[in-house]
Amino acid sequence: MDSPILILTNARLAPGFDARPGAVAIQGGRILWAGPMADLPAFPGAERRDLQGRIVTPAPIDCHTHLVHGGHRAREFALRLEGASYEEIARAGGGIVSTVAATRAASEDDLVAQALPRLDALLAEGVAVVEVKSGYGLDIDTELRMLRAARRLGRLRPVRIVTSFLGAHALPPEAAGNADEYLSDICLPALRAAHAEGLVDAVDGFCEGIAFSPAQIARVFDAARAFGLPVKLHAEQLSHLGGTALAARYHALSADHVEYATAADAALMAAAGTTAVLLPGAFYALRETQLPPIAAFRAQGVPMAVATDANPGTSPLTSILLAMNMACTLFRLTPDEALRGVTEHAARALGLTDTGRLAPGLRADLAVWNVTDPAELAYRIGFNPLHSRYFEGQEC
Ligand code: DI6
Ligand code: FE
User: Fold this and answer.
1) C-beta of 312 in contact with ligand 1 (< 6 A)
2) Model's pTM, two decimal places?
3) Inter-CA distances, 359 with 39, 160, 297, 356, 362, Å
4) What's the CA gap between 114 and 83, in Å, rounded?
5) Using CB atoms within 10 A of its CB, is residue 246 exposed (0-12), middle (13-18) or buried (19+)?
6) Ligand 1, from 75, 279, 314: best to mutate by most atoms within 8 Å of Cβ?
7) Angle at alpha carbon of residue 84, lines to 80 and 85, rounded to 5°
8) Banded model confidence at residue 1, pLDDT cuts 50, 70, 90
């Protein structure tokens, strides 16, 4: 017997639908049908739920987070307010490396317990998919532990966790001055072990003066390719090193941050099908002034995703709605672009083809909002209008 059908009626669908009352039919955790009420097929015996004109969107996807980590960096925040730069703090042994120490000291249970409130903050805004990176272990055991903690989050909450291996995030203090050895002896063996355990959905890196060069990242990408894993890259965040071009050469799912990317980089991304992941939380927290080349992305048709970059150093942000607001206010995205940025384009940035749009056959991961205009989602600041959330067709 077919599984029961639930129809959400009298809704307004966004993005990309007209203003007429719409409906979404759900069966077996998938969208069976979505469109204007006037065209709704007869589904005999279906349960109907009246949404009273509320707006329904695909559930948001946070496609770039460092949600699993030990401790916080409020002290460093204070130092930066007194004038120290992010790079100065990193070079003086603070920054990422201080989170590495706290993460190494944390058990898997600790990491899960510390990440859960952050995850819950995202879920409270309807988020259904969260990407979580490693990269604060920088030794084999801790990189694996972070990824196991990430996978556990997906068993503890109604959420889909997508992992990225970020062993090439920073050089741990014990490897100072030996980046190539670190890659050979720690990073690549950690990737092999994590992949063997099924812990890796994609491979990421940090291509930056304070992290790894394009040639070093290429070694990591070659390993990913040998394992059949897709790649993505933190590129052009603080300077222009050529990470975006490298990412495009490897047909990366995404190039992330990209403040210092150029129009030529945008063209390479377009040709490679690489999504630009915009992270306005980090731009804001670092009081960055270099804007990502939004006009070039638009002109070239590069899809733009928006994410929180939730991390303890440069983006202690766990609100996808605030990330949307900042993408509009700081980067001048339109509210519609911001909404697509956390749905359709965020799915692309993760290589997911079964979510992010209101289309038949896709997962019924939906958010229902107490708003009358979809632009309100990006417009409000610090207000959460979520009415209800559907995960694989179940309200929860
Ligand atoms: N770019 C970022 O913004 C984060 N990682 C990265 O590669 C910052 C990580 C941190 O400072 O802890
Ligand atoms: Fe990041």
Assistant:
1) yes
2) 0.98
3) 15, 19, 25, 9, 6
4) 29
5) buried
6) 314
7) 90
8) low
